[in-house]
Amino acid sequence: MISFRAAAIAAATVLGATSAVAQVSTPATPRVGSVTAGPEYGPPAPTTTLPAPVLVPRDGPLPANLTLSQALEEAEARAPALLAARARVEAAQARIRQAGFRANPELAVEIDNLLGTGALSGLQQTEATVSLNQRLDVSGRRRTRVAAAQALLLADQIRFAIARADLALSVRQQFARAITARDRLRIAEENEFNARELARVAGILVQEGREPPLRGIRARSAAAQAAAELEAARADELAARATLTSLFGVATPPEQVSGSLIDLQATQVDPEQSLDVRLADAERVAAEAEVGSQVAQGRLDPAVGVGVRYVRETGDFGLIGGLTMPLQIFDRNQGNVSAAQSNVRAAEANLASATATARVRTQNAIIAVEAAEARVQALEGSAVPEAGEALRLAQLSYGEGRATLLELLDAQNAYRTAQLALIDARLALANATAELGRVSAQ
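Given the sequence above, the corresponding structure tokens read:
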């Protein structure tokens, strides 16, 4: 029989001895921001690390009384969108590790002069060759692959930051809507109570002949309308809390929300450093890195081989060596290089568009915050207090018989309208502040 085991052992011995051809040091695992250094040839692969543990979202009920800071914290720990973005970052990190691996060596076994005719019949003249071939990667394919994977990781990291910023924006805005719905419900309860009490008093006055029957009908109609508005406000308040918790991936809303609508402080805003601009720039860098990778794919990439040949007739062993060089006559990866260069131009255009959009978005957010602040100050400073004082005087006058029921109802409606306007203004200020916080996130 042919001694394949002996040939393989001899081949391994030869490979260990020819360190000038095949032996290289094992580089560390590629890290973000730096390209793996060291020779580009040889069989060893980068040392890998254990994969990160699978992310598990927080479970369990939400706090019964949810504040804005708690809502933001719960969103960070529970939101499926954020978990998905974080998983994409981990996938990009794994792609860097994969890009750092060298090409696998190829083991070749060849048997010559097997079952021929004449002098080559049988196994008398059989020759067995065991060889190991390794692509050298002198064209820099691995290095450019790692650089391209690192650029993609940076883009995914910025996308994760954008996902966090978008989630925080949604939580702040929806929390403000929940607080607004709560305040509207409070006003609706007060209005329904006052309307019901006024209808009761008006009924007594009509029975005593101090008010015409039409006034009693008007008061009962206002009470019925207030009751309908109260039911609508209850439904809106529950829906607002449920919508808020849906951002966390939770079906059961908290019992109530409380606290301030705004948690952000005024900061210096630089549109050029916004997340959207940074992402567009990272995508441009990734497109440029892909050009380098595609150019490297079109370069010559030779492979060397070394092995042992066993001749059965004489029982001798002999060393063999070889060099394989692809002839790039037809395919030099021209199409992929051209496509990558076009992607760079597209990324540069997207960067210019993102920069212009960020500037306009920042300006609009600042204007919206200033306008909302002015409206809140006007309503808090004069409109609501004056409407409240007018209602107090109307109530006194109606009790003394100097004001009619219609005048009292008008005063109540004016005060309620002013309160609702203030609630809407605070909501607009919270939304504008949240938007400004989103565009200033870096």
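The chain has nine helices and six strands. Try to locate this feature in the token string yourself.
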